[in-house]
Amino acid sequence: MKIFDEVLVNALDASTRDGEVRKIAVAFDRAGGAVSVQNDGRGIPIKLFVRDGVERVGFRGEDTLLVMNWLQPGMEPGPHSHPFEQIAVIVSGTVRFHVGDETYDATPGSMIRIPPDVEHWGEVIGDEPAMNLDVFNPIREDYKHLVEHQAKDFGEG
């Protein structure tokens, strides 16, 4: 219930700041553990709750997906791998990236290349929240819910 309350409060806050929002849609994917919040204003999505300490929003091109992540100190790391390349750009804060057997302390402006099929994860270093931009090619199927607001632009809606 806490997650649901948090999603609605965040959506209401965003709609208050954006005078064009007339409707907000909230969707829960129990199997994937994702919560999506979309507005019908300018088509710009509201930050989506992923898990405690992690929120994200997505924007896509024809074959490329950009995902902005907001990471809080103390967030639970999520080691994973995927069959495609990822590039991470640190916008603010400091993130310790673990990529295979290597570790990188990335600060604003740092760029990390994560090869396909290599286990990786990040963790915030220090007390300051971090923001990083991930670039994926091709578009991750499991992140398509982040870009539902663009479905019509690509003949998918």
Q: Can you tell me the overall shape?
A: globular
Uncertain runs: none
What is the assigned CATH homologous superfamily of the largest domain?
A: Jelly Rolls
What's the structural domain tally? 2
What does this structure look like?
The protein has 157 residues and is mainly beta. It has 2 domains: 1-46, no CATH class; 52-146, Jelly Rolls, CATH 2.60.120. The protein has 1 helix and 11 strands, in the order H-E-E-E-E-E-E-E-E-E-E-E. It has one helix at 2-17; strands at residues 24-29, 34-39, 48-51, 54-60, 65-71, 85-92, 95-99, 102-106, 111-114, 120-124, 130-137. The strands form 3 sheets. A 6-stranded antiparallel sheet has the order 3-4-5-11-6-9, with no helix packed on it. Strands 8-7-10 form a 3-stranded antiparallel sheet, with no helix packed on it. A hairpin with a 4-residue loop joins strand 4 and strand 5. The longest helix is centred in the first third of the chain and has 16 residues, at 2-17. The two termini are 30 Å apart. The model has no long low-confidence stretch (mean pLDDT 81).
